[in-house]
Each structure stands twice: as structure tokens, then as C-alpha cells.
Amino acid sequence: MNYTFCAQTDPGRVRENNEDSVAFDEATHVGVLADGMGGYNAGEVASGMATAFIKSELVQWLSETGQQADVGQVRRAIEICVANANRSIFNAANANPQYSGMGTTLVVAVFQGAWLMLGHIGDSRCYRWRGNELLQITSDHSLLQEQIDAGWLTPEQAAASPNKNLLTRALGVGNAVLLELKAHQLEAGDIYLMCSDGLSDMMEDAAMARILQNGSSLAQMAQELVFRANENGGRDNITVLLTQVK
After folding, report:
1. Using CA atoms, how far apart are residues 180 and 182, in angstroms rounded to an integer?
2. d(CA 47, CA 105)
3. Can you give the residue ranges of every domain in the chain?
4. Fewer CB atoms < 10 Å away: N or C end of the chain?
5. What is the C-alpha to C-alpha distance for residues 230 and 18, in angstroms, rounded to an integer?
6. Of the candidates 217, 212, 211, 220, the residue with the CA atom closest to the CA atom of residue 191
């Protein structure tokens, strides 16, 4: 399998600063996306620390281990890197009053052979485009998603709820964090869309699917996704990371 990456981030039309962060490494097939939270510029600090730390640690480990690591070893490496990043952000928040309470969502992906090991925390998402179908393959760690899962709200009711951004998990806000990790089998032609909620809150899945099915380049798709999210209001920072499997 071969993988092509493309990322784009934009502050949107309402916020002056961008608290999203995104990073990838084509050589080791690593992608990381984070959406920070906190007062002043603390959200930027948390998300930047998360993407830089996790990318650096995973790239170093994968470079040393080569492509011989199995799925279980990649899973364990991601868990360790995320735990270390969590402690670093938490300690920085405790050591600097201006960063108190900062945290970030996270999506981290390692593509290896015919497998994707995907981890996430919070409500940043990953979608898979396969066979003309777009499927969300992460489940938000949010109060709304818990209410949907419990049958208290329908997805349509949740879409209109004012409580969209109440997270049940975030990186860096405690001594430990629970990372959700799953392995996904890859197929040639797949496109994986990792994004912050600045995209998913501004666009319906069907609108995203129409952009991914048009057969344009990853760069054009990324630009169009950001453009449409802004056209729909751009109420938050917008970040996308596209990965195509060939």
C-alpha cells in the first residue's frame, strides 16, 4: 500500500486565532490532528504540544523499528506516546497559571501495510470514504453522543442542541486519559478524512461525501472542504487531514 497525505487549516470566519493543529509524516505514514481549548492562547499551546510531541515520538519509534512492527506493537506505541503527551500538557498547565485548564482533542493515525491503527480523544473525527460511501469511524467523546447512545436524543435533535461542545474526554486535563484505539483494514482507493469539529459542525456528511467523490486531487478536496465550512458560517477553526490509500 502507498499513502498520500494533505492537510489544511484555517481560523474560520469568527475566531481571530487558530487553536487547531495538524501534522503528518509521509515517510512513516503518521497523521495527528488536535483541537485545543483553554483561555488566552492555551488552546493553541495544548494542541501544538500534542501534535508535535506525538508525531515526533511516533516517527522516531517507527523509524527505528521499521515496518516490522505488528498491529499490537503499533497500538502499544501509540498508547505510550499519547500518555506521555498527556502528562506533558497536564504538567505545563499546572506549572503556568496562564495555561491552567488547557486541553485538546486528538486524532492520531498510523498507516502500515493493509492496516490503519486509529486513536482518538474528544470530538475531532475520522471518516472513511470507500465505494462511494462516507462512514464516520470514530465516535465522539461528548455528552451529546452519550445521550444519543442512550436513546435520549436522536441525531437530528443532537444537531440542533446548544450543548455540542461538552466533551467527556480531553488530552491534558488530568493525570491520565482514556484513548480509544481501533484497527481498521485498508483497501486501495480508500480516503480517510480527519477533521476538527469546525468542519463537522459546519457541514453535513452528505456534503462532505460530494466533495470526496468528485475525483479531484487531495489538495483540491481539502481546499473545498474548508471553503464550504466557511461558506456555511465558519464559526470555529477548521482543520482537515486527508490520506489516500493506493
Report:
1. 7
2. 8
3. 3-139+170-245
4. C
5. 14
6. 212
Verdict on whether the full-model pTM lies above 0.90:
yes
Cell of 18: 487558530
Q: Which three cell numbers stand for residue 240?
A: 482537515
Query: CATH second-level architecture of 3-139+170-245?
Result: 4-Layer Sandwich (3.60)
Give dist(CA 105, CA 239) in Å, integer. Answer: 12
Q: Give the model's pLDDT for residue 178.
A: 95
* Closest among 226, 242, 245 to 22, alpha carbons compared: 242
Residue stretches of the chain with pLDDT short of 50 = none
C-alpha cell at 86: 498527556
Residue 110: CB partners within 8 Å, gap ≥ 6?
A: 28, 29, 30, 58, 62, 74, 77, 78, 116, 117
